[in-house]
From TrEMBL:
Keyword Nucleus: no
Taxonomic classification: Eukaryota, Metazoa, Chordata, Craniata, Vertebrata
Gene3D superfamilies found in the cross-reference section: 1.20.5.340, L1 transposable element, C-terminal domain, L1 transposable element, RRM domain
TM ranges: none
Signal peptide range: none
Coiled-coil stretches: 87-121
Keyword terms of this UniProt record: Coiled coil
Protein name: LINE-1 type transposase domain-containing 1
Domain of life: Eukaryota
Amino acid sequence: MPKAKKIAPKSSTISGVEKDVDMDEASVISREEESSNSNFAQALDKLTENITKVIDEKVNTVLVAINDQTVQFQASVEQVGQAEERIAGVENSTESLKATVADLQKKVSEMSAHIDDLENRGRRCNLRLVGLPEGTEGSDPVHFFEKWLPDYLKIATKAGRIKLDRAHRSLAPLPGPAQRPRPVIIKFHNFTDKQRVLNAARQSGTDPEGSANTGPRISFFSDYSAMVIKKRKAFDDAKKRLQKMKIEHALLYPATLRFTINGTVKRFASPDDVTAFIDSLG
């Protein structure tokens, strides 16, 4: 009896085919996943590259700006340093100049005082007449005043005249009919004659420097520089107050007010000081 042939089960064959199909599908899926992953990686790389590029551009712009600012700041620091050096040099020079200016101011003040003193010494023999009508002296003022002064002030002289060097009106413009006449400047040959005239004017006048003769009021003054006149004029208010208080006083050269009160001699070189003293008297 012949042997029967063994036939493999169909399920086993089908199972193998299914496995092959599954493997193919898995392979396809795997390749698709790999392709997808590769595409994603490429896209990610591209995105990263783009982001990096943008960031680099932005950062480079910022770095360039920062570098420019740093350069400018360093330049400013250098300029400030140079300015500080120059300022320090100027300050040092200023301190030196201050000392120099102070020294020069002191010298100028001393020279000004010396020049003013010389000017007043040159005027020692001068006398200033105020109030004499224009034209009274005629065409020869020296000859006129040599005889007019002793006659007007009742001064005894050997030859009936006082020797003068010069006599003229001040250099101001000729005044109108209703204006005050210009002062007359008289230069005496001798200082003692000038003092005699001033003393006679004080004795005949109603105030320390003036005359009370009939006719126009004519006052006699020593001829001082503008600086001394300004200093002496500052005492006018104090002199008026002393006169009202019936206190005898004198304004000494160049500008010192002297008076006696309660047996004590007072001297003031400052108008403010004498005013304060008079106020303290009540």
